[in-house]
Specification:
Order of helices and strands: HHHHHHHHHHHHHHHH
Number of helices: 16
Number of strands: 0
Distance between the termini: 32 Å
Structural class: mainly alpha
Number of domains: 1
Helix content: over 70%
Largest sheet: none
Shape: globular
Strand content: under 5%
Amino acid sequence: MTTGSLAWPTRAELRDMLGIAGPIVIVQVGLQLMGFTDVLMVGHISANALGGVALGNFYFFNIAIFGMGMLMALDPVVAQAIGADDHAAARRGIQRGVLLALGVSAVVSAACAVSGAAFQLLRQPPEAVPLATAFVRISIVGLPPFFIFIVLRQSLQAMLSVRPVLLAVLAGNAVNLAANWVLIFGHFGAPPMGIAGSAWSTVLARWVMLAILLYTGWPQLRPHLRGSWRAATAIGPLWRTVRLGAPIGFQWFFEAGAFAMATLMFGWLGTIPLAGHEVALSLASLTFMVPVGFSSAAAALVGQAIGRRDMPSARRHAAGAWVLGVGFMACSGVAMLVAPTPIARWFTGDPAVVLVAASLITIAGVFQVFDGTQAVAQGLARGTGDTTLPMVMHLCGFWVVGVPLAAYLGFRTALAGRGIWWGLTTGLIIAALLQAWRVQRRLRLDIDRVVVEHPTDLS
């Protein structure tokens, strides 16, 4: 096995990366903007409503996150198959993804149905529990389009066809914004529904996004979705796809679960600290979507390069993703450090919530570069088909170090909420450094294509 080193991308390759990553970044930001809009609009009702949305989003995404990550197995499978000009394998991979999305929807729906009992078990603020429970249960209606959209989005991105995804997300945001305004506050004769209106708006937007994605992306998707699905139901390849994607799901769960645990800790501190935490976390999550966009583009470009056995190109695409993704996060970190209070006031006018949020936004400014580093590293690892060791690294960074340190600093020192965030920041830094080390070592080698099908599976 030969080795090589990461090389600086050419101007043409940087332009290619920006041309592909730009729309994906807008897509990622657009997807996050839907939750951002919910928080922004509900935050003007009351601190209790903001806390309810925080808990509702916390539960929904931490139940759904494993399935979302598992479906990312399509990144190496489809991109590498297309790079190798093996469109039959790509078709079977996409079809398996849709089947897995339906299965994941059923499991997550069952978990969402018992959210009320879970909130009580976790001793969350009594005034926020009914609101959060309603938000989660309404969200069940939007689960099938949510997961199928992920499958088709990843498939189109692996084909480097991002315009249909961009159009779908833009339309979804427009629908979510308009429906929020009507249903939350009660315009055009609709009754004011508060948090429930926000949840229904998101459900409607998810169905609209799936419909538009199918319509605008049908020329690319039709060869993969029409015809016989018999081969896609073979148990062996389905199981191997799950085995490839499950570590990604666990990796995402470990990271999201760490911040979910922080949300629980803030719930124990009270409604005002919880609302301030939600504001800061929503902002950090929004900026995080930019390096995730570059990460997704890099996963597709690196995967295709591996499929056509062009490792020098894979290495240059990886370097370009580092430069652009981490560079953006450095700029966002400076903005958070310079103006935390004005940024917090975008979300809420409650002075107590602004005070808490501003103190946490400053900490978010410190970890931005590291957050960008690990985001890009995750996408590059997926593109190469490397899923197990990155999962272990996330477990060590976030749960061996980050969460225990957050609990200690938050409840055994005077730092309180800031201590919780400093603990998580320490874990994030460790995970980011480990992920960057792993990806750079792996990309120095010649990497074989990921194969989930054996000859006997197709007989």
